[in-house]
Amino acid sequence: MAIHNDGVTITDRPIEQVREQAIDQLIMSYGHGVISAEAFERRLDEATNTDSHQRLVELVADLSLEPDNAYQQQRQQSFMPRYQSAGTARHERITSILSSSHRNGQWLVPEELSVLAVLGSVTLDFSDATFTTQQVTINIANWVSDVTLYVPEHVNVVLQMTDILASTDNTAPSMGGRQGPTLVVTGHAALASLSVEVKCTMKEKFVAFANQVRQSLKS
After folding, report:
1. Domain Cell wall-active antibiotics response LiaF-like C-terminal: where (predicted)?
2. Calpha distance 149→185 (Å, rounded)
3. pTM
4. How far is Cα 59 from Cα 44, in angstroms, rounded to an integer?
5. How many distinct helices (H) and strands (E) make up the chain?
6. Which end of the chain has less Cβ packing within 10 Å, N or C?
C-alpha cells in the first residue's frame, strides 16, 4: 500500500514524516509475520538512511498493514519522552571522590543536577529516565575524573563547559526537537574528560520495538 500523501505531493512532505510512516508499516508487517526478520532489517536499514521520498514509498509499496490504535499507543510509550511531576526533589547532588557513581534505569531526573567528581567517575544514563521538566541543568565540577552521559536520540544536549587540559566529546545527534528534553551541561573540567554518547541508536530501538510488537501479537 502506498504511503498516504493526504492530498500533498509526496516530495513536498517533510522527509521525516514519510520516513516515520514507512517505518511504522515495516514494523507492523514484521510484527504480523508478513515479512521475515532479514527482510525487515534490510528495509529498515535503507529507510533510516535514505533521503529519497520515492525510495521510502517503494520500500513499503507491497505492504498492506497499517498501524492501528494499539500500535500507536505502544509506540508512544516506547519512543516519546516520559515526564512526571517533580514533587519536592527539584535539585540533587552527586559526589564522587576517589570512587564511582552511576545513575541508570528508570530514575527520576530533577530540574537541576550538581555533579562533583574528584579522582573518580560518574555515569548518568538517561536512556530509560523519566524527566520532571523539559530543560535540565547539569552543573559539573570535574577534576581528574571521567564523566559520561548516555542519552537517547530524542534528548537534546547543549554543552557550555570550560576545559582546562581536559577533553569534551559529544557524539549524540540531538534529534529531540521541541518535544524532547534538553540537557544544558555547564561547569568546568581540569585534567578530566566528559563524553556524551548514545547508548542505543534509533535503528536498534526500532528493531527492539518491532520484536516487542511481534511478541505482543503472539501472546
Report:
1. 104-168
2. 10
3. 0.76
4. 9
5. 5, 12
6. C
Residue type, 108: L
Question: The cell 526478520 sits on which residue?
Answer: 37
Domain ranges of the chain: 10-80+202-218, 91-197
- For residues 140 and 117, the answer to whether their CB atoms sit within 8 Å is yes
Kindly state the cell numbers that stand for 29. Answer: 508487517
Starting at the earlier edge strand, list the strands of the sheet with 135-143: 91-97, 112-118, 135-143, 182-190, 156-164
Q: What is the largest CA-CA distance in the chain?
A: 62
Q: 45-95 pLDDT, tens per residue?
A: 999 999 999 999 999 999 988 888 888 888 887 877 888 876 666 899 999
Q: Which of 18, 13, 194 is nearest to 115 (CA)?
A: 194
CA distance linking residue 129 with residue 84, whole number of Å = 10
